[in-house]
Structure prediction request, 698 residues.
Amino acid sequence: MGPRPLRIIVCIKQVPKAQELQVDPKTQTLKRVGVPSEINPPDANALELALQIKDRRAAEVIVISMGPTVFDESLERGVGMGADRAVLLTDRILGGSDTVPTAYALSETIKKIGDFDMILCGEETTDASTGHVGPGIAGHLDIPQITYISEIQIEDDSVRARRTAEDGTEWWETTMPCVLTVNFGCTKPREPTLLGKIRVKRAGVIVHWSCADVGIDPNKVGLKNSPTIVAKVDTVHLPPRARKVFHGDAKDAVAKLLDALLEDGVIAL
Amino acid sequence: MAERFDAIVVGAGPAGSAAALALAREKFSTLLVERGRHAGVKNMFGGRIYAWPLFDLLPEWEKDCPVERFVSSEHMVFLSGDASLGIEFESPRLASGKAASFTALRPKFDEWLAKKAETAGATVVTGIKVDDVVRDGSRFHGVVAGSDRIEADLVVLAEGAMGQLTQRAGLLPDLTPASVSVGVKETIEVPAPVLQERFGLGDRDGASYVFAGDVSGGARGGGFLYTNKTSLSIGLVVSSEDVARKKLEVPALMQRFRMHPSVQRLIKGGKVLEYSAHLVPEFGLGMKARYVGDGILVAGDAAGFLINNGYTFRGVDLAIASGIAAARAAVDARKSGDFTARGLSSYERYLRELNVLTDLETFRAAPSYLKNERLFTLYPKLLAEIAERVYTVDGTAKQKLSEVIFDEAKEKAPLLRLLRDLIEGARSM
Prediction:
């Protein structure tokens, strides 16, 4: 008998496509209605990483998300790519939740699914870029976490993962169950397949749960239980380029360029 | 994981969705696979659908079918140089009952029909390209998409004009420039009040224009214009053989066509929303296309079910009817437990009962007649010049109409040949 099937839960969010980002001038928040959407790209990288584990060994991949029912589009894509099933936590009282209630609500959903070995999240979302939710889930579940990973090795009950640090990569090791947050762009998410898309249409493969179904405390979610306040959204203007040209023969010009870069602190000896 | 269906339909255009809908109703477990992101997004046509087969398939179709406008006025316009000669036929009877036709936008219409198939129980999958048909000797029994292979008793190919799978299955010879035309279309936004006033239409009424004669710069072809709710569909269908031979640029032909004063007047002030192009099968029954094989049926454009007789362009109605016929043949095959070509042979009978084959046979000669270049160069010029002479009053001595016609014809077209072309035209059209 091979190793027991792993249960991998991948948390995904549906976000407006990066090229389509628009800020509502009134509310100063992102427009989410009527804009083309996709799976948050780092989450798609996480899902691909989970499916690659499933390609190699017995594993069940479950995709979960929290949001309105239009998020089904992304869950369908996840199942089409090869996930076994999907759960959408959807409830009006969740509206306006920031990362604090979201991490709580998702951790309760994960508990309800139960028997999990690994939880994968994207490192952050492309629409809000907080990177809070993965670590938040680990906190609520009180299990170890490795953030910003791009590679996973599994041996018995332990997981080794390559973590991207400021100035290089590190290998970390922990035991399952654990939370891993996955680097944007570390995998190439596969396309949905015909069999996957047929499975999407089967009853019970994608289910909707309400807060009551999961046992989520209504007093811990929603806009009024979210500490984040969006005060202002600004466009960042990049400083103009210096447009310096270094003249002279190649050797002199390069020497001048190096001096200038050293002086500005762009490079160091 | 092994997946199996009773029937797999390739292509969620009108033919495929009609077949899947009718099959699902007959309790076939049915898979409908579409390459586009949604049904209809890759599809293109002139703009009008003859409704008759919908009465059969969905008796209550009018309730929610995304109709743009019911066509109540038909126009035939001969263009020549900067002149034009038009014939108009208006009747409320054109816009109601079984003879009704309506303008539509394919992303909406095809999505609607595919939804009907899904509601009837078909599994509808979009965004997947079928790469091949599974065959065992001459017997077809499934499809392949990527690394997935799915089995079925029956495969219905409704993949459209290109017919790649139909060719792979050996049911359609390679397409040649002579067997396909190229269709180009612009969708032009015109506000409803402007549109209705310009064409003299009520809220739900629509107009259809067929342009003949010197439409496409000496290439054989025709033009069309249909009114939608708040846009016009205008375009050309041009012989791809001529485009290649005469080294013509299709966008330039389109530009020339839309700049004709009689066309410009109809579209002026409109904003181009969309430009599209598509192949139009013109092989009809002329090519040795087969539409029945062991475990396989071909429907719609892929089978060449399209009629262009010079004054009506029909494709969607024939496609829907052929989808219905395919499902009926499948029921017979299931009864006899035989999905080979023999068990499916009633397809042809149903195609005949629904007048798909009969109409194709009636207009069998039209495609080759419409290849007569004189129709696109000499005769429209003749017509325009006759009209010009008849309507010109400038103090010079006038001739009787018959004298003008005789005079013009004598000069430009040998009378015998003109007569022969006329008789042949009447016969084939």
